Structure of Germin-like protein:
Amino acid sequence: MKVANLLVAFALLALASSFVTAYDPSPLQDFCVGIHDADAAVLVNGKFCKNPSFATIDDFTYSGFDVRGNTSNQLRAHVNLITADLMPGLNTLGVSLARIDFEPNGGLNPPHYHPRGSEVLLVLEGTLYAGFVTSNPDHRLFAKILKAGDFIAFPFGLVHFQMNVGKTPAVAIAALTSQNPGVNTVANAIFGANWPINPEVLTTAFHLDKNLVEDLQTQNWVNPS
């Protein structure tokens, strides 16, 4: 990856950092069930903090973003998401970073949303078709072909996607406004739920034949990571 591309990626991260607060004001998990037994409880909104006297530069750095991800999967794409789990210094900073690799001719980061963050994505290499869909009742599609040097913003909580429509591999860097933005891939959540959703629900909701729904529920739904 060229030095210029890395500099642009860091500028993108700085942009994302400028419109977040110094901490996540909303929950960093899907739910938090109240409990009276402290011994069975977990810490909410972040991790326990290391004594500042013991912090090192390694807590605030990560190496390996120049390495292409393994795209040998059904979606032909790979997402390397760096959160506070991999880079402890991100804890309480309200930001995370991802590298997405796409194989040529259709590598796909499928429709998904982040329940705890918005996103800006910069194309470093290749050509991507990227967009998002607004919420009820309009469901407006905002989409565009992006080339190297272009970037797009995905608003908080909206379904969005990227697909490589070029003949060469593509690489993008994304910055998200949470140290743990979460990812919910639409198809996986609907057809790969554990336990399976009653087929009658999906048959009615998606106007699909029941046999097709049941077939979809037996398939292996993968994430691009």
Notes: The two ends are 20 Å apart (CA to CA).
